[in-house]
Fold Adenylosuccinate synthetase.
Amino acid sequence: MANVTVIGAQWGDEGKGKIVDWLASRADAVVRFQGGHNAGHTLVVGEQVYKLSLLPSGIVTGTLSIIGNGVVLDPWALKAEIEKLTAQGVAINADNFAIADNCPLILPLHRDLDGLRETAAGSGKIGTTGRGIGPAYEDKVGRRAIRVCDLAHLDALDSQLDRLCAHHDALRAGFGQPPVDRDALVAELRDIAPYVLQFAQPVWKRLNQVRKAGARILFEGAQGVLLDVDHGTYPFVTSSNTVSGTAASGSGLGPNATGFVLGIVKAYTTRVGSGPFPTELEDATGQRLGERGHEFGTVTGRKRRCGWFDAVLVRQSCAISGVTGIALTKVDVLDGMEKVKICTGYRLRGKVLDYFPSHAADQAEVEPIYEEMDGWAGTTAGARSWADLPAQAIKYIQRVQELIETPVALVSTSPEREDTILVRDPFVD
Ligand code: GDP
Ligand code: IMO
Ligand code: MG
């Protein structure tokens, strides 16, 4: 029995939440392994719409859902999200939900710093989600973080707080801000601690038990490979590794546990925030993709930038992340287009490239080389079998898999859970 690791293969918002929810009913555990509440995953089940940021998407099907150590956890955002989901009828309790006790916390001071830096950067800003993700990861690797397990030892936190506040007070002074209100911070932590601690445990142990029992584990990535801090469009990236390899280190299982790597790929391209985007369309076609695809951020409500499918980028993401097969989503958004284009290479100062270069200036300057295909007259929306797809849509899907050198395992044709075509089952591969 294979485990499955789901990752985004573009700049996030590929439809990971929908696919994880669809697969979750056949998994025994779903684990988030990086990122935080910068993620926004929308699940549609009949009339109900669930918006998840921090909770693993498996929670909606009642599957054991775990937040791994690789995640940065805002305890107040967690509580608000659990309350929202509970009000929608989702059961969340210590039996079906666990948090790694070695998970670093996002504190109000991280959100402050994220905002101060973005404001100071003006037009050079990253366009972060403002959730404090970057500063929290900095404190983790800087060995200054307060972690979930520290919430059980708040009386012994003095020396850790000295180190954390010394660092942040210096940064805040540079922005003309007052020092951290340490007493208020401790009071807030004392207040939230019991809520978080009811779910805290060494999840590496639980996951290893689950694995030994032969159960299926679904690893749920957030963001996408092009936002990876090493492999993405640096510095316009998030602050974690979003590639499949992180599933192991971010959950406490070895790399041999991660199984089938399912890359989620949107049939066109979107991006939120600043940074290079070679196939971006700032014309009526881009507008149309945004409107038909409802391309507005789940977390910040920002309009997503839209463009043609970029096969160079996705081929690169699939190689870097060892993608076994892809789930191609939002094919229906292309329904009714007379022509569709796919980027098959770049031109950079007279040279043709078959990869995306690393330097920011080169990334900004590459010009896409397009291949044009006829669109399709019929509709793919709501299709649940390959036979329901118009012949020309099948041609598009086949061309995509050829160019990215990775087979299609699933096709998604609407936001609704069941509007999904299974081509090759990742769990039994
Ligand atoms: P994630 O961050 O990767 O989970 O993706 P988001 O949830 O942020 O964005 C994807 C959006 O597209 C959501 O609103 C989904 O409901 C929607 N969606 C997912 N798959 C499909 C699909 O195949 N067709 C259409 N039209 N919408 C989809
Ligand atoms: P999901 O999981 C799309 C982007 C932000 C910004 C950059 C850095 O829903 O696919 P951060 O707050 O992480 O420091 O912001 O990363 N970003 C996302 N874009 N989908 C996401 O998550 C994202 N999470 C972060 O817009 O450009
Ligand atoms: Mg999203």
Summary: The pocket of magnesium ion (ligand 3) is lined by residues 12-13, 39-41, 298 (CB under 6 Å). The CA atoms of residues 350 and 366 lie 10 Å apart.
